[in-house]
Write a structure and sequence with these properties.
2 domains; Glutaredoxin; alpha/beta; about 350 residues
Length: about 350
């Protein structure tokens, strides 16, 4: 048995809450003994998939031989290989090697995202990926003992799922696939490779915006125009307008000017990797519009603006800094509904 009772219950609760459509998974493997016999990985993968399908009946598993026509049609040459999404209209997520160790989490999350039909990427990332006009492959090299690797794999999977068939995300267990890992000089994980081009290699967990831009550069003929437009819009938002109806961009370079300029300013301190920050982001945008002329809202990326983060002792996010007449008068920490947030803000007036 792969999952203990506690883990099985946690997966069951997650699947019951999140799975919407059926998810079809194909396993390709061989029982032939070779010089690099990996029968233990195959046995693990078979049991892993069997137990997942028993936890929720929306998960369907189909086992296939490595040398069947189905495998040849999909270019499958590695045993075991698992494809998630086969039968859902496209094949966005692949795992070369057993989804063992920390990687089991990214695998389970992929099932959930495909079932929901929701990549959970930021709105700006979704818009950029609409411009992908070439078929792409993103490979992420991992090891089971790497606690950071699942974050990289999940991001790659999100991008593939959002692309609607243009992009395939392939998780490769580097220790099982040593020869392929050597092709790209994998010495540290996670490592990402786009379209098997060595010039595309990135190492470590990438920020969503940075990696989506990287993917765009390799997969879109209009990448240059899209990114130039984004940069112009960013510069415009850094201009401290007199009466904005949107969150202005706060940076180390303009924070003092913003505090002095606006009688009542609320700065949302956030980061791309922060889940609760993504939850509160649309709330801030809505309040910036509805409270125009009353409250000015700003957004500060803590990773890109370390001086301001240190100056105001930002230790957890989301953290809203409240300024009145040029002085900091309070903090509001954590994500919350619009009405509750506005009530807390108004308490500082």
């Amino acid at each position: 048995m792969i999952f203990d009772d506690k883990t099985r219950q946690q997966i069951r609760e997650k699947f019951d809450a999140e799975l919407k459509d059926d998810v079809y998974i194909k396993l390709f493997s061989t029982d032939l003994i070779s010089g690099n016999n990996n029968s233990e990985y195959i046995d693990f993968t078979k049991e892993f998939l069997k137990e997942l399908s028993e936890i929720n009946d929306k998960v369907h598993v189909d086992s296939n031989g490595m040398y069947e026509e189905k495998a040849k049609k999909r270019g499958i040459t590695v045993s075991p290989t698992v494809i998630i999404g086969d039968g859902n209209g496209w094949y966005p997520v692949q795992y070369f090697g057993a989804p063992a160790g920390y990687e089991a989490g990214s695998f389970i999350e992929a099932i959930s995202m495909i079932s929901r039909g929701d990549s959970a990427l930021d709105a700006s990332s979704r818009e950029k990926l609409k411009n992908i006009d070439r078929d792409m492959l993103i490979e992420t090299y991992v090891t089971p003992a790497c606690p950071h690797c699942p974050k990289a794999v999940v991001l790659s999977n999100q991008i593939a799922i959002e692309s609607g068939g243009k992009i395939v995300s392939r998780c490769i267990e580097a220790q099982e696939m040593i020869d392929r890992a050597r092709m790209f000089n994998v010495s540290s994980v996670p490592q990402q490779v786009i379209n098997e081009e060595k010039g595309s290699i990135t190492i470590g967990v990438q920020q969503e915006k940075t990696f989506v831009n990287q993917v765009l550069n390799y997969g879109s003929n209009s990448a240059k125009e899209v990114l130039e437009k984004e940069e112009k819009e960013k510069k415009l938002r850094e201009v401290l307008s007199a009466n904005p109806d949107y969150p202005v961009v706060i940076t180390d370079g303009n924070v003092d000017e913003a505090i002095a300029k606006y009688p009542f300013l609320v700065v949302d301190c956030w980061a791309e990797w922060c889940g609760p920050c993504k939850m509160i982001g649309p709330v801030i945008a809505k309040l910036a519009s509805s409270q125009k002329g009353n409250i000015v809202f700003g957004k500060l990326d803590v990773d890109s603006n370390p001086d301001t983060s240190a100056k105001f002792n930002i230790r957890s996010i989301p953290n809203l800094l409240v300024f009145k007449d040029g002085n900091k008068v309070g903090d509001i920490v954590g994500a919350m509904p619009e009405a509750m947030l506005l009530e807390k803000i108004n308490a500082f007036k």
